[in-house]
Amino acid sequence: MSALTRAELAHMVDHTLLAPTATPADVAALVAEGAALGVYSVCVSPSMIPLSVPEGLLVAVVCGFPSGKHTSAVKAIEAAESVALGADEVDMVIDVGAALAGDFAAVEADIASVRASTAGVVLKVIIESAALTDEAIVGASKAAMAAGANFVKTSTGFHPSGGASAHAVALMRATVGPDMGVKASGGIRTAEAALEMIAAGATRLGLSGTRAVLDGLDADGVDEAAATEDAAGY
């Protein structure tokens, strides 16, 4: 398996700023840095759009963030407003408690409500994998797939249980198969960790420290093949 180049890895990244204290100046700096690094998108809070971004840089916006405990109607309205304001992609949070309770019909219905309000844009479903059992990860991933989402995503990065793991990514990939996206996010701070997630099956990464990860790829010469040796279950 060949090494990933810096540009290839960068183009898998949603360059992210979701801090409650983020200012318009902070988001403008995020956009400028993301464009310079060659990332796929910038990911921000709904209140920070519309954004002026260079051609080729997409805008992702979170929905129901970070708890997922909003009603489906509220999530659908929030997502629709974000799309109207120029969001290219929406990252929604499920009701994690419903998944833990095994009520995957409710999880699917919640996702379907947001899917119906976001026609034409990429929908990513955050399942908060570190807070779930393996059974619940599988059930939530199946619900996202059944509801027509484009990606299933590990984490908000705000949950005390933690962020992405190679085990969760591999389980999500095994569940949704090769045709649906898997996004790893939360706690990925090094090139080695990023490549481990890719080796486990991630096709997108949510990073706040994108420059450090890319610089680590250059400095360490870490490649995807080496990461594969450490990836769990895939």
UniProtKB/TrEMBL annotation:
Positions of the catalytic residues: 91, 153, 183
Into which EC class is this enzyme placed? lyase
Stated EC number for the protein is 4.1.2.4
Instruction: Give the reactions, separated by semicolons, that this protein catalyses.
Output: 2-deoxy-D-ribose 5-phosphate = D-glyceraldehyde 3-phosphate + acetaldehyde
Gene Ontology BP annotations: 2-deoxyribose 1-phosphate catabolic process; carbohydrate catabolic process; deoxyribonucleotide catabolic process
Q: Where in the cell is it found?
A: Cytoplasm
Annotated keywords: Cytoplasm, Lyase, Schiff base
Identify the pathway: Carbohydrate degradation; 2-deoxy-D-ribose 1-phosphate degradation; D-glyceraldehyde 3-phosphate and acetaldehyde from 2-deoxy-alpha-D-ribose 1-phosphate: step 2/2
Q: Does the keyword Plastid apply?
A: no
Quote the InterPro entries the UniProt record gives.
Answer: Aldolase_TIM, DeoC, DeoC/FbaB/LacD_aldolase, DeoC_typeI
CDD domains xref list: DeoC
Query: Matching Gene3D superfamilies, A to Z?
Result: Aldolase class I
A GO molecular-function annotation:
deoxyribose-phosphate aldolase activity
Q: GO terms for CC?
A: cytoplasm
NCBIfam families for this protein: deoC
Looking up HAMAP family in the UniProt record yields: DeoC_type1
Q: What does this protein do?
A: Catalyzes a reversible aldol reaction between acetaldehyde and D-glyceraldehyde 3-phosphate to generate 2-deoxy-D-ribose 5-phosphate.
Query: Which family does the similarity line name?
Result: Belongs to the DeoC/FbaB aldolase family. DeoC type 1 subfamily.
Instruction: Fetch the PANTHER family from UniProt.
Output: DEOXYRIBOSE-PHOSPHATE ALDOLASE (PTHR10889)
What is the name listed in the Swiss-Prot or TrEMBL entry for this protein?
A: Deoxyribose-phosphate aldolase
Q: What is the species of this protein?
A: Demequina lutea
Supply the gene name.
deoC
